[in-house]
Amino acid sequence: MKGRKGFGAAFAGFSGIALTLAISFAIVVALILLFSKVPGTTIFNFFIGPFRNAYYLGNMLNSAVPLVFTGLGIAVAFKSSVFNLGGEGQVYAGGLAATAVCLALPQANGFLGAVAAAAGGLAMSAVIAGLSGWFRMQWDADEMISSFLLSSAVILVVNWFITGLLDDPANNLLATLPIGPQYALAKIFPPSKLNISAFFSLAAAALVWLFMNRTHAGYEMRLCGLNREFARYGGINVRTYLVAPMVLSGALHGLAGVLSVLGTHGAAIKGFSGGMGWNGIAVALIARNNPLWVVPAALLFAWLDAGARAAMLHGDVTYEIAAIAQACIFYLVTAQALYGLARKRSAA
Amino acid sequence: MSGSSPFAIPLVHNAVGIMTPFLLAAIGGLYTELAGMLNIALEGLILAGAFFSIVFAAATGSLLGGILLGILCAMLLALLFGAVTLYLRANVFITGLATNLFASGFTIVLAFQLFKTKGVIQFPNVPALPVLNVPEALQRVPVLGDVLFGHNVIVYATWLIVLVSAIVIYRTPFGLRLRGTGLAPATIVSIGRDPRHYQLAGILISGLTCGLAGAFLTLQLAAFVPEISSGRGWIALVAIYLGNKTPAGIVVASFVFGLAESFSNWAQGIFNVPADFILALPYVITVAAMIVYAIIRHYRSSRA
Questions:
Q1: Which one of A334, B40, B126, B301 is at 20 to 30 Å from A4 when CA atoms are compared?
Q2: Residue A77: what pLDDT?
Q3: What φ, ψ does residue B122 adopt, rounded to 5°?
């Protein structure tokens, strides 16, 4: 595939990342100055809003949890030079499958039931993503396009499950029936929604790093990412590493959905995963596909997201201003000329 | 698809209309594809064209003004995409995603600023797209007359664009160099030209056609719906491959997608299928078509 060879290596240093972020935030500030009638309040809430009290802060940290998982999912795929653009649908389907398992086992033991739900969600998303990898391996059908198209279809089908088959007629939300209270993950920072899944996300980042950097399979995956032809000459079964990274990536996306349902919402809510997939890509790019850096990058995006919500609530711009910031980051984060510039600046 | 049965004719007639945005986006995307760039920004370019053409049509009171300014905005977004990709040397997939996200975010932020809503925006004062008048004798031609005529002007403009594109790509020095850029950029350098110029030209042309595709979507509805492009850019991308990267092939592939959508619209009225499933169908059909094509190509190349 054109331009995709050695994709994982095509990122530049931290001064470049810093420059990217600075430019992107400057553009957001400029847009707020342009659009807002109370720019001072809006800008203040955008940057400081998420830290104003324990509730906001906890919720911001909590919203970083799924981003760690989606970021890891994308980092694993990109490191292997495999493109997974189906994150949005994979998170959503994982959350739905976990909800369905919980609803099917209303009386089960909380721990075992939650494990079963996690397994269900993980398997569902791993299969959806793995399918695109398998199409690529079998017939060389572009996994980037097929994963996006499948995810778009999956989102609509999940919508139907949430608002149709599993809909809770008792509430006005577009949400499924609530899962049993025994499945809810323990809260660690009341009154916010932050829960023990935060620890899971840290563990996941460490485990993915260990897998990629300290295991044989991880080494082979990275080698395939750097140069698939070279890896093939080295006797690596490169076909496997078109499917395996997609399966792993899908499983991590599925867990993001599972933990959102068990930890945050207690049900599958229509559109709950909106943006998690795209944000995951941004997180992985900022982290330069390093699993350990995914954690701070996820926090950064959770802050951006919470800031945009605070700016909407207390200021007068709409939440989608975050999408523009994200787009600016996407534009610049792989721009090599920009990094050349940054390097020259820092050398001088 | 027996052309003579009475229900098939409106089905095919509708398909000819529905295929228009696919065809426009795919023919524009063909220029970038031939220049060696996978253009996943088609989706965002369509959305930008859709939003700005109807906003400007309402503001200027002129359909043509709206269409031209909508196209201009889509081309400006294409310029941003192309300039960052080619001159800041950024990864074309990531900047393509950026373009889609930017279009999606920017249209909503702007809609909220201008119309105080993030939902559907109606433009009752925008006139309907005129239907092209043809002599009655032509309209009375059996089957073809029913299928080909009675569409709005953008449909016919699209056919003209496809025809012109076939000539530009295969019969002009520009087309030759564009294709050369994709096949062997070094040859373009060797004749003293910059391959990036041809790639940027391809991207700008895709902005033009996607802008028109977007205008078609909003102007025929007289409304802007958030995310109105709804995957058409991606489906167009697949149409380029299914059409073997030729204008004629793209026409056929777009027609198949148009027919599939026309058929599912018809089925929705007959069977009681949930709307979400109907909306999911184009994506499923596109993946299926993509896989079938990949399988055929795979076995052909392994036999050769």
A1: B301
A2: 96
A3: -90, 140
Q: Is the C-alpha dihedral spanning A191, A193, A199, A205 positive or negative?
A: negative
Cβ of A157 under 8 Å from any chain B Cβ? yes
Contact flag A335-B84 (C-beta cutoff 8 Å): yes
For A294-303, the pLDDT digits (tens) are 999 999 999 9
Per-residue pLDDT, averaged over B68-76, amounts to 98
Give yes or no for A149 touching B (CB within 8 A): yes
pLDDT band of A344, cuts 50, 70, 90? low
Contacts of A156 in chain B (CB under 8 A): 276-277, 279-280, 283
DSSP secondary structure code for residue B120 in this structure: -
Do B36 and A160 lie within an 8 Å CB cutoff? no
Q: A58-94 b/e with 16+ CB inside 10 Å = b?
A: bbbbbbbbbbbbbbbbbbbbbbbbbbbbbbbbbbbbb
Distance from CA of A163 to the nearest CA of B (A): 10
In sequence order, what are the beta bridge partners of A195? A187
**Position A156 pLDDT exceeds 70:** yes
B144 burial via Cβ count (<10 Å: 0-12, 13-18, 19+): exposed
**Could you tell me which residues come within 8 angstroms of residue B183 by beta carbon, excluding any fewer than 6 positions away?**
B36
Cα A149 versus chain centre, distance: 18
List chain B residues with CB under 8 Å of A334.
90-91, 94-95
Q: Are B115 and B121 within 8 A, CB to CB?
A: yes
- Is this structure's pTM higher than 0.95? no
Confidence check: pLDDT of A333 > 90:
no
